[in-house]
Amino acid sequence: MRTPARLSLLAAGLLTFGAVFLHTHLVKAEPGIDATINQTPAEVRFWFSDRTEAALTSAAIMKEDHSPIATVRMKETDDSLVVAGPVPVKLEPGRYMVMWKTASKDGHVVRGTYYFTFDPAAEAKP
Question: What is the DSSP secondary-structure string of 57-106?
Answer without folding.
Answer: -EEEEEETT--EEEEEE-EE-SSTTEEEEE--SPPPSEEEEEEEEEE-TT
